[in-house]
Amino acid sequence: MMIARVRTKEKRRGSSERVIEELVFSGRMPTNVASGQGDHTVAEGLLRRVIHKVVGQRRNDAFAVVLDLVINSSLSADKADAIVEKNQPHYQGFADKSGEDQNRLLEDLIQDYVRAANKRAYTAFPRKAAKTAGGGGERAALKQLDLLSVKYYDNYKQEVPDEHHIAEQDRQIFVANVCTLVDYAGDDIEEAVKIVQRAMVTALERVPFYVIWQSLLERVTAKLIVEDAAFRDDVTEKVAAILTKSYVEEYRAAWCIGPSVWDEGEDTDEESSSGTEH
């Protein structure tokens, strides 16, 4: 079982406002494979790496970020993941909690997110199914995506660049490393669509200005599905249609949270070391 820990620090020396300083993970979540972990079709490391974008953010904002990940990563693409949705009452009123309780709830939400993601259909296959090769190169691929993220956040801050500002070399880096993080050799259209969608959605959460990188979907599928052009085109078309949808605002409204309704008062209290199961 994976446990998430949230550590916070003062935003500024002498300030009562606190931001996320560090996330620490231990253990692994069970997957959809009954007999063990199996081979992940999309590297689990990418899932964890994306969550780290909350580092440096206020707890209120970090909570909204993780909830956005839950919604946008849903492979059903029409509702928030069932595990988290079931626990909705547990998270409501987050903004009114003490700092210590907010840390615990944020840890719970992160754990629910990873648990839900690992229980989705086609998250992993047993090796005997012969649909995966065991992966490889994950560490280097994640590092390359990290470098892209830093480069474009630092260069453009909050200003969305024009498409021509994304260098061709960086486009190639994005495509190559997303594909490295995918391990699937099957020929089932439903499996392929959900796996490619998950890879793209998660990778797009790692880099800024997702609309621009999203346009590289066709290159990704071309690299992943080389031999069967008709199958590749079908996968591309279906994933592209899904990527145009967003349910973030709908579910933020339903859960009565989001930046527009956060209490702007300063956070208080200290870090938590709880990994509450619920």
Helix content: 40-55%
Structural class: mainly alpha
Task: State which percent range the strand residues make up.
Answer: 5-15%
Low-confidence stretches: 256-278
Q: Give the strand order of the largest sheet, numbering strands 1, 2, ... along the chain.
A: 1-2
Q: Residue-averaged pLDDT, rounded?
A: 81
Along the chain, the helix and strand elements come as EEEHHHHHEHHHHHHH
What descriptors fit this protein?
278 residues, mainly alpha, two-stranded antiparallel ribbon, 12 helices, 4 strands, globular, disordered C terminus
Note down, in words, how this protein is organized.
- The protein is mainly alpha-helical.
- The protein has one domain (3-261).
- It contains 12 helices and 4 strands.
- The protein has helices spanning 44-51, 59-72, 82-86, 88-91, 99-119, 138-156, 168-180, 189-206, 210-214, 217-224, 229-243, 248-255, and strands at residues 3-10, 18-26, 39-40, 124-125.
- The strands form 2 sheets. Strands 1-2 form a two-stranded antiparallel sheet. A two-stranded antiparallel sheet has the order 3-4.
- Strand 1 (3-10) and strand 2 (18-26) form a beta hairpin.
- Helix 1 packs parallel to helix 8.
- The chain is globular and about 60 Å long.
- The model is unreliable at 256-278 (pLDDT under 50).
What's this, in brief?
By secondary structure, the protein is mainly α.
Write the layout of secondary structure elements.
Layout lengths: L2 E8 L7 E9 L12 E2 L3 H8 L7 H14 L9 H5 L1 H4 L7 H21 L4 E2 L12 H19 L11 H13 L8 H18 L3 H5 L2 H8 L4 H15 L4 H8 L23
Antiparallel strand pairs: 1-2, 3-4
Helix pairs in contact: 1-5, 1-8, 2-5, 6-7, 7-10, 8-11, 10-11
